[in-house]
Design a protein that fits this description.
391 residues; globular; TIM Barrel; 8-stranded parallel beta barrel; 15 helices; single chain; alpha/beta
């Protein structure tokens, strides 16, 4: 197939692009990683059974589970039913619990499969929650459900708590009581407002330093119930400073999709583990880089991840909460699904030029596993969007 095609640009023009990348193969790691690495995974929608936007979502369970097995075979863990799976943006709690259950049951045959699942308060409509006692009960309902199916817990930030809390002490109390219900240590999740504007001022403080102290107080009050914390603030300096203040038993899981290579590599003082949405899109590069890091080959680690950073920064560009569109588009380009259709209509949340740059940058990072097939797929989408090649 001709390896040159015309694609739209952000300048409103069509520009020729010639494929240049060498595809990375997906492969099983040669050794155990020396970092814990979770990939937050997307869901594959079922366009044939999709209903109106307010109806329960239709999910292609076979393709959704196949993709999780693909990630696990490359040594990556699964962070299930998180925002990458459109939690709170198309995936309601009842579907999230089914996803969690199916993933746990459908991967039991994979040795060492590492799966942690999101637990929040999103099954209760925000207007009906007026106080912290209701937030605690909402957390407890999801916590019990996830633990009942044998899931490890990622305690997600709560829009309801952000809405009703009146002071940092409300956060301290809610987390203290919820963590006391956990049957084993959990991962906390501090999701910045760039990912979810409804979480602005989380921990009861607008200023980062004061919010960080409240979060550290929460961890310190229940340190035996906290495995680690994922911070998604897209600010490496803040993450490093916070990491250095953590109790020695508590892990940092980077959620920084802009600066992950250096944060994972670390420095003389420490390093971050990973819980990243971008690992869904760059799995072969992430897996092989972590394999190299485990053998102290930092040059190869950085060589593999460096080309993925421009792609990640593009996928997660503002408005960041729509990054899922880029992740799913790349899954479509790579043949993991036969369509570019998403829960809640989110396939329409980014313009054609954004999608074209996902294609270009993925190619340059070696992340189009079958470039000829990807050309055919991107052409179909661009034609449907009115940006097809013209003679």
């Amino acid at each position: 197939m001709n390896s040159t095609l015309k694609l739209p640009t952000a300048l409103g023009t069509m520009e020729s692009y010639r494929l240049q990348g060498t595809p990375l193969d997906a492969r099983t790691p040669a050794r155990a990683f020396n970092r814990i690495a979770y990939s937050a995974a997307h869901v594959v929608a079922d366009p044939l059974r999709a209903a109106e936007l307010g109806a329960p979502p239709a999910i292609d369970w076979e393709r959704t589970l196949e993709y999780r097995r693909y990630l696990l075979r490359q040594g990556l863990g699964i962070a299930e039913a998180m925002d990458t799976a459109q939690r709170g943006m198309g995936l309601p709690w009842h579907s999230a619990l089914e996803l969690i259950t199916r993933t746990i049951e459908g991967t039991r045959d994979i040795p060492g499969a590492l799966i942690a699942s999101g637990c929040g308060t999103d099954h209760v409509a925000l207007p009906s929650i007026t106080n912290c006692d209701q937030v605690i009960r909402a957390y407890a309902e999801q916590l019990e459900a996830v633990q009942r199916v044998g899931g490890r817990v990622i305690l997600m930030a709560s829009r309801a708590l952000a809405r009703v809390a009146r002071s940092p002490d409300d956060y301290r109390r809610v987390y203290r009581e919820v963590l006391a219900m956990c049957d084993r240590p959990v991962i906390l999740h501090w999701l910045g407002e760039m990912f979810d504007p409804e979480l602005a001022g989380y921990w009861g403080e607008a200023a980062y330093e004061r919010a960080a102290q409240v979060c550290l107080d929460v961890i310190g009050d229940s340190v035996d119930r906290v495995d680690g914390i994922k911070i998604s603030l897209l600010d490496d300096a803040k993450e490093i400073a916070f990491r250095r203040r953590l109790p020695h038993t508590v892990k940092m899981y980077t959620g920084d999709d802009f600066n992950y290579p250096d944060l994972i590599a670390g420095d003389d003082v420490g390093y971050s583990h990973a819980l990243l949405g971008i690992f869904d899109a760059i799995a072969p590069a992430a897996s092989q880089a972590l394999d190299a890091l485990a053998s102290d080959d930092l040059d190869t680690f950085h060589a593999l991840l460096a080309p993925t950073v421009p792609l990640s920064r593009h996928i997660f560009r503002a408005p960041t909460q729509y990054y899922k569109t880029g992740v799913v588009f790349l899954a479509y380009l790579n043949g993991f699904q036969d369509h570019f259709f998403m829960l809640g209509g989110h396939h329409g949340m980014r313009p054609p030029a954004y999608l074209a740059d996902v294609f270009r940058l993925a190619d340059q990072a070696g992340l189009l596993r079958d470039p000829d097939d990807a050309i055919g797929r991107v052409r179909k989408v661009m034609t449907a969007l009115g940006c097809g090649e013209r003679s």
